[in-house]
Amino acid sequence: MQHRYLPMTENDKQAMLEAIGVSSVDELFSDIPEKVRFKGEYNIKPAKSETSLMKELAKLAGRNADLKTNASFLGAGVYDHYIPVIVDHVLSRSEFYTAYTPYQPEISQGELQAIFEFQTMICELTGMDVANSSMYDGGTALAEAAMLSAGHTKRSTIIVSNAVHPEARDVLKTYAKGQHLRVVEAPVKDGITDAEALKNLMNDDVAAVIIQYPNFFGRIEPLKDFEEMIHQYKALFVASSNPLSLGILTPPGKFGADIVVGDAQPFGIPTAFGGPHCGYFAVTNKLMRKVPGRLVGQTKDEQGRRGFVLTLQAREQHIRRDKATSNICSNQALNALAASVAMTALGKSGVREMAAANIQKAHYSKSAFKQAGFEIVNEGPSFNEFIIKLKKPVKEVNRKLLEKGIIGGYDLGRDYPELYNHMLIAVTEQRTKEEIDTFVKEVGDLHE
Amino acid sequence: MNNQDQALIFELSTPGRIGYSLPEMDVPELDLTSLLPEEYLRDEEPSLPEVSELDIMRHYTALSRRNHGVDSGFYPLGSCTMKYNPKMNENVARYNGFVHIHPLQDESSVQGALELLYDLQQHLKEITGMDEVTLQPAAGAHGEWTGLMLIRAFHEANGDINRTKVIVPDSAHGTNPASATIAGFETITVKSDEKGLVDLEDLRRVIGEDTAALMLTNPNTLGLFEENILEMAEIVHNAGGKLYYDGANLNAVLSKARPGDMGFDVVHLNLHKTFTGPHGGGGPGSGPVGVKVDLIPFLPKPVIEKQGSEYVLDYNRPQSIGRVKPYYGNFGINVRAYTYIRSMGPDGLKAVTENAVLNANYMMRRLAEYYDLPFDKHCKHEFVLSGRRQKKLGVRTLDIAKRLLDFGYHPPTIYFPLNVEECIMIEPTETESKETLDAFIEAMIQIAKEAEENPEIVQEAPHTTVVSRLDETTAARKPILKYQKAE
Hints:
A: Aspartate Aminotransferase, domain 1; seven-stranded mixed sheet; 15% strand; globular; B: Aspartate Aminotransferase, domain 2; Aspartate Aminotransferase, domain 1; 15 helices; 12 strands
């Protein structure tokens, strides 16, 4: 058959079969035992032309309520942010997206340099010494941080705050099973990690303590209060952080974090139903050689010109096999590129301005809800999220809101049974005053 | 390609320039110090670039010109399946209703997305011959680990807690043993025989009551079909172990043989390889896992199900291994793979494999005269050559790879698999024309001649790239992993 992606003509095939010395393509498959040979064709949908398939899929896409048509107040780890238009223009350069891992540095300098710049920007934002080239997402990056900590300290207990993203904690628990690690969840008090309770959980088997900053409820955890306690027990201090917030918040590195992980999705990466996003992984110099995944380093060529290569590869699976620091191979390079372009476009002043806009608009929304008679649950210093309590189930309210073109907040009762009817609301720089006012009014009306 | 040093974006920065346009600040602004405690307000701005929009576009355009992708030229990187990435997939993945939806929206508002994922699962089940598929794993290695965790959960549920070992062939991808370690297993290596296939005697020797699974790529990394697959399945199953299929090489057997029919219990696929999700400069990928019926209860949750005409996420899976990734996998890549499968249809996918295998055999036969062919039989979608003949002339496989750069090609995979000396692993894929293959073959022949007549030109290659060979030793010894302003 002839297909637009398959260039071989019948003439080509004949010439090639002759060169091989066989009379049919089937002969090339004669090594597949008769018993396992698949006969006939797959029972799947027949091929469609470009036009009709695009039409069908556009229709399918049209059945989803998207964040461009509706005003979204949903966050909980994934956010609707400003994506500079230029990001997609860079990503569409097919020299980037049709390449693979830069194994041949001489013809991959573009990708390597872009990753080197990404590593630098992540270090700048997190206040850390070393950042890798990306992980799958924030959740698996967090699990890898726990494994690094266990390996480094030769201990097997991981303490994770209950105010860490519930799905990231779930992923951590799955990885922990494989590694025979014990995961202990530290309780939350008044919206932040309970320092007293955490202290009581500490012991000589604790490899790491994981705190999210800002936490899942949007609150800014007092990292300073945890650092001493964690290091006193010689455990590693792991912070999981929304990198956009670090445009305005003191970076975890300044508070003595040993590992900072998170997801760069707020920088130039669309929500995309949860993926692909872009995990990042940053550490102190001391842990440099234990980092999972690819690292790009600067070096020189034979003529002394600056160039970039994949480096410290002795950590990785293709060299160390079962002794590797991680099994990660493919990462999220293209999304790291998107994040780089967005961080570059925003730059020094834009990252701060955008982070500040999130705080301002979320604060305005909080005040508006208070004025409308709502209680802000566990109010305190926060970034772009906060909690309100409803009289009705969140799911019910959200279905009604959707009819008004609003995607409501997250139903906290899904993960925290005691927080039934509590809605986690995210307000980013994208929301206008008018959208916020409408949202508050609509929730208020449904509340009655 | 140009020959100038490309400045880092930080070196192009000028205080005061900006490249963004944020939404209007239309709410009253308060003093941030009244909203946040002072010690949590950053006192030092991050040193991010300050550049205009055109500066950015020029910078990344310049970088892109220093990069080789499939669209730039032939990319026969073995085991990576660097086929053409259809442009239509890119358009579809950017539809608002796919790219701008939130994973935690009410299920009723994402029925289109769930339907697509469900139907993709149905297609992948048929293609692999498995009973159920999860789309949650983010990449091939992530799928391997997921699959091994499923096997682990299966054995544990049967009270079979002493199965601590995973067997992998010496020709396996490095991710196989690494994934086994992360899943808590010990790796045992099984040897290949002189024909390049798993040595059955050695398999019988290493298998036992402590075997959790055998991980296998079929065709293997030498591009050879494991002809004894049914016998191997029997050996593994009789010992109580599970058979794991590494789907990196699925492009070789579409419509020809299904892992499920070969006796495999768990399969992972690399949608960025066989099913054209672009490789993205290293990712994102997507690594769905398919299982046979006895492993279904252990699949990661949530599982996408169809109830009547509605698609739902099922979290009520008491035996599930749990989550392996937040949300539902790399949706954007899954959309691309689905678009591709629907563009090809059953006859198209069959033609994919037939052409991929034809291309590989053609190249192999034409190059056999000039390079050593360690395994002289029909290959599948890829094949390996050995550069040992050239090595005797002082020309290493690395040199041959570097010389190919001068001809405008991305070199094949080199020094892998580990069981072939001076290995050169070539995978042309089905999307390349005969003219492209012929031109590459001519280049390889010329390099073989140069190795004999003028080895220096190969040893000193590349001659035409923006940089020459880079000092990797110093890079690792004195790592510079981020930009630092010159003092």
